[in-house]
Each structure stands twice: as C-alpha cells, then as structure tokens.
Specification:
The complex is a heterodimer. By secondary structure, chain A is an all-alpha fold. Helices cover 89% and strands 0% of the residues of chain A. Chain A has one domain (2-85). In chain A, helix 1 (2-22) runs antiparallel to helix 2 and helix 2 (26-52) runs antiparallel to helix 3 (54-85). Chain B has helices at residues 2-11, 14-22, 26-51, 55-80. The chains are: A mainly alpha, B mainly alpha.
Chain lengths: 90, 83
C-alpha cells in the first residue's frame, strides 16, 4: 500500500514537472505546478509514512506534510499575485 | 525499490531546473524554484525514511521553511522592484 502511494505521488510529481516544460505562460505553469506539487507531495509523504512505519520518523513527517499542504498554496498565490500586479501577459 | 524511488524523484527535479535556466520572465524562474525546493524537501524526507537517518527529516523541515520564505520574499520583490 505504501509502495503504491509512493509511485502514485511520483506520477503526480512527474506530471507537474513535464507540464512545467510544456505550458507557455507563467499562469499555466503555476496551475500545473500547484496541482502536481501539492498532490504529489501529499501522496508521496503519506506513502513514506505507510512504508517506513510510525516509530522511526512519524511525527516530524506529519508536521512536514501539514506544513507543505498549508504553505504551498501561499507560495503559488504570492507568485500569481506578483505576476498579475506587474501585468505579465497570459 | 528505495533506490528506484529516489532516482525517479531526483530525475523529476531536472525540468524545474531547466525552467529556472531558460524561463523568460522572473515569475517562470520563481515557479521553477518553488518546484525544485519541494522536490529537494521530498528527497530529504525519502532518504531519511528509507535509510534511517532521522536527522535528515529535521533538515527537510528547515529546508521547506526557508524555501517558502525565499519564494514569498522574491515574489514580493518582483511585485515592486525592477527586475
């Protein structure tokens, strides 16, 4: 189960990476990076947690997961607002 | 399997690096930098979980905090300043 989640997270991260090469404007890249990175990171960290067990590294990994889930949309919003204020063409 | 997961994760950090290199505007480079920070964080967490280095997880948490701070600060800088 943990292995399946690890490879599903890797698939989402690869979708984010390849979309960052394929798309044209900064907004499209933000969108694909947001979906791929947040989903991929959450699924990957849950997979790590199920794979390696709770005793060794459980608590800090939960903290890392919550931190990434809460701050990744903030970074995306900061970049998008900055590009919108400076009138970057879509 | 552990090594395969780490290699795939490390290879998925190449497209954000290319985006930092060739991105035409500052915001393309910021998107690439945020994505690269996330992959480095996940790589540190994976290495800590697979090979039992518990200290690397603290390093990953500190790296995530500093990466978020750098992304927000550079975005605010690009909002006002000349680039």
């Amino acid at each position: 189960m943990g292995t399946v989640l690890l490879f599903l997270g890797l698939l989402l991260l690869w979708i984010g990476s390849l979309g960052m090469l394929r798309f044209r404007s900064p907004y499209c890249r933000l969108q694909v990076a947001g979906v791929g990175d947040i989903g991929g990171a959450a699924v990957f960290l849950v997979g790590l947690l199920l794979h390696s067990g709770w005793e060794a590294t459980g608590g800090i990994m939960i903290v890392l997961l919550l931190f990434l889930i809460f701050t990744n949309p903030l970074g995306t919003h900061a970049i998008a607002k900055s590009a919108f204020v400076r009138r970057v063409k879509d | 399997m552990n090594v395969a997961v780490e290699v795939l994760l490390g290879l998925s950090a190449i497209p954000p690096f290319l985006r930092i290199w060739r991105g035409p505007t500052l915001w393309d480079r910021l998107v690439g930098a945020a994505s690269l920070n996330l992959r480095v964080t996940l790589f540190l967490a994976a290495h800590a979980a697979f090979f039992g280095h518990g200290l690397l997880l603290d390093v990953a948490l500190a790296y995530a905090i500093l990466g978020f701070l750098g992304t927000v600060l550079l975005a605010r800088f690009g909002e006002r300043g000349e680039h």
